[in-house]
């Protein structure tokens, strides 16, 4: 399984106009994959929505992107759209390919790490040794590496019932010395964290 993470950035002061349209955007988001989540940014760069879509193959991702290139208004929000960023990912070797469906949020933390050239394998190996213990403290939805040209990125997604649950889990992991994973930061060159909230029509909630 492969995943596309697309971020739609809205122009300022257009959120009210876009919100009623987004359920339709979500329902028809991809012609070759299954969109499983839509999340609005709560802490980070605002007026942005993340769409997470699952694909059976990289060929289907390429087919969908070709369709988007030909479409005049593929998301149905062209007058309000300020930017689009799409990245394709593959789950790291120690993760199940399929993202588990369910209600785990409503808060979803998206952490994006940029990896030094050739450093993903070393990073993944370090994570594999400790992620089971960290997952016992709070659920890890997915961790995956980009398969695009350019600097490689790793995204890990953590759902939480509340901000307090996040603070508690991260504090416990730090106290026990398992997070960040020992040796797992050696090849990281940049780190970013954003907190999203699942929309009411998202499959992942």
List the topology elements.
Elements: E1 2-10, H1 15-18, H2 22-27, E2 34-43, E3 48-55, H3 58-70, E4 81-91, E5 107-115, H4 120-128, H5 131-137, E6 142-146, E7 152-160, H6 163-175, E8 188-198
Antiparallel strand pairs: 1-3, 1-4, 2-3, 2-8, 4-6, 5-7, 5-8, 6-7
Question: Which labels suit this protein?
Answer:
205 residues; globular; alpha+beta; 8-stranded antiparallel barrel; Alpha-Beta Plaits
Order of helices and strands: EHHEEHEEHHEEHE
Q: What assembly state would you assign to the polypeptide chains in this entry?
A: single chain
* Number of separate helices: 6
Radius of gyration: 17 Å
Q: If classified by CATH, what would the architecture be?
A: 2-Layer Sandwich
CATH topology: Alpha-Beta Plaits
Distance between the termini: 21 Å
Any idea how many domains? 1
- Give me the side-by-side strand order of the main sheet: 1-3-2-8-5-7-6-4
Which stretches are low in confidence, meaning pLDDT under 50 for 5 or more residues running?
Answer: none
Class from secondary-structure proportions:
alpha+beta
Query: Major β-sheet, in short?
Result: 8 strands, antiparallel, barrel
The top level CATH class name: Alpha Beta
Total number of strands: 8
Provide the β-strand percentage band. Answer: 35-45%
Anisotropy-based shape = globular
The percentage helix is 25-40%
Mean pLDDT: 96
């Amino acid at each position: 399984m492969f995943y596309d993470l697309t971020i739609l950035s809205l122009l300022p002061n257009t959120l009210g106009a876009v919100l009623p349209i987004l359920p339709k955007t979500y329902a028809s988001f991809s012609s070759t994959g299954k969109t499983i989540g839509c999340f609005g940014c709560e802490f980070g760069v605002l007026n942005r929505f993340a769409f997470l879509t699952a694909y059976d193959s990289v060929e289907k991702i390429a087919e969908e992107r070709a369709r988007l290139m030909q479409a005049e208004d593929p998301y149905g929000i062209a007058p309000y759209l300020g930017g689009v960023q799409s990245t394709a990912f593959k789950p790291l070797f120690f993760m199940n390919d399929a993202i588990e469906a369910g209600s785990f949020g409503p808060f979803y933390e998206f952490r994006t790490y940029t990896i030094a050239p050739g450093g993903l394998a070393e990073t993944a190996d370090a994570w594999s040794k400790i992620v089971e213990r960290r997952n016992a403290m709070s659920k890890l939805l997915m961790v995956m590496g980009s398969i695009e040209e350019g600097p490689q990125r790793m995204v890990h997604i953590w759902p939480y019932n509340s901000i307090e649950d996040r603070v508690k889990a991260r504090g416990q992991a730090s106290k026990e010395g398992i997070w960040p994973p020992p040796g797992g930061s050696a090849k990281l060159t940049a780190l970013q964290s954003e907190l999203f909230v699942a929309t009411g029509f998202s499959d992942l909630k």
